[in-house]
Amino acid sequence: MSQHTAGLAIETAGLVKTFGATRAVDGVDLAVPAGTVYGVLGPNGAGKTTTVKMLATLLRPDGGQARVFGHDVVREADEVRGLVSLTGQYASVDEDLTGMENLVLLGRLLGHGKKAARERSAQLLAAFGLTEAAAKQVKHYSGGMRRRIDIAASILSTPDLLFLDEPTTGLDPRSRNQVWDIVRAVVAQGTTVLLTTQYLDEADQLASRIAVIDRGRVIAEGTKGELKASVGAGSVHLRLRDAEQRPAAEQVLRLALDVDVQREPDPVALTARLDAAMGDTAAAQAARALGELARAGVVVDNFSLGQPSLDEVFLALTGHDTKTDTEPGTRADAGTPAHDQKGEVAV
Ligand SMILES: Nc1ncnc2c1ncn2[C@@H]1O[C@H](COP(=O)(O)OP(=O)(O)O)[C@@H](O)[C@H]1O
Ligand SMILES: [Mg+2]
């Protein structure tokens, strides 16, 4: 549907936003290919919402440039507004109106005729599993329903670019899955989605490329595979037939792979974190380990080779886990080694 599909939906260079002494966004470069879900992953206070607000023309940048489908977000703000839609941590729907009333009202505001607005609204309510709730006031919706009506409202007229700012924060797993399905459906129709999230598995599930953002800076960028590969080669998980063979298996794995081997709580299970610097691929290392185990007479019942989780990626990139709050005003440590590593870890 988009005439821009061949190019970039978003392009920023050195984007900056300060609030007093806080550099909320501290020189962000992004290149978001059109027609994809792009994940901006970072903990609370990382600068995700501030970035989205600048891209959606709701906040004026203090430095750098940002273009949406080639239009400058400051000089061509009107053009940008015509192409984007925003949902997530913002209330766009009226609590006192029903789901149907909200959508029809918005549809009318967007210039749809009465009949077209009703039809489109009914279609979206059905697609989002809200038909039965269509006549209920939104204030009586559950958290998951509320999030879905928010997204429905934001795609009433199919936008070229949809910002989803933490669309599933606080939702139960079932509602999260429903939102994920909706995001996939929206992208299948040609809309580009910029998704911010604190959830590593959410970025992993939905996004083709991910920028990891911490304290206003992009600390790594790439496809999921690239990000994971920049951190480690993954892990080998083994389940043995016989718990008594576990010490022997540990020794064989240590010798074959030259890495630490961890005992899992399950007495027949072992995990070995592979070393990316070993030179050969994770699969080759794993194959070698299995061969050595067989030669040593260790019976392996179950074997899997897993990529590192995005949690491990974040920890490796930032030196802190995703739960650690980045307090405003602690930016003085922005030059710690974790941040200086950008050149090595950026992919
Ligand atoms: N309007 C504002 N005034 C002052 N500080 C703000 C404002 N908005 C955001 N900040 C600060 O900027 C930083 C980034 O915030 P935000 O973009 O909301 O992060 P995120 O969305 O990743 O949680 C935080 O330190 C936050 O406290
Ligand atoms: Mg936010």
From TrEMBL:
Keywords: Antibiotic resistance, ATP-binding, Cell membrane, Membrane, Nucleotide-binding, Translocase, Transport. The keyword Nuclease does not apply. The keyword Lipoprotein does not apply. It comes from the Bacteria. Residues 10-240 form the ABC transporter domain. It holds the Pfam family ABC_tran. GO terms for molecular function: ATP binding. Residues 321-347 are annotated as: Disordered. Its main location: membrane. PANTHER family: ABC TRANSPORTER ATP-BINDING PROTEIN, DOXORUBICIN RESISTANCE ATP-BINDING PROTEIN DRRA. NCBIfam families: drrA. This is ABC-2 type transport system ATP-binding protein.
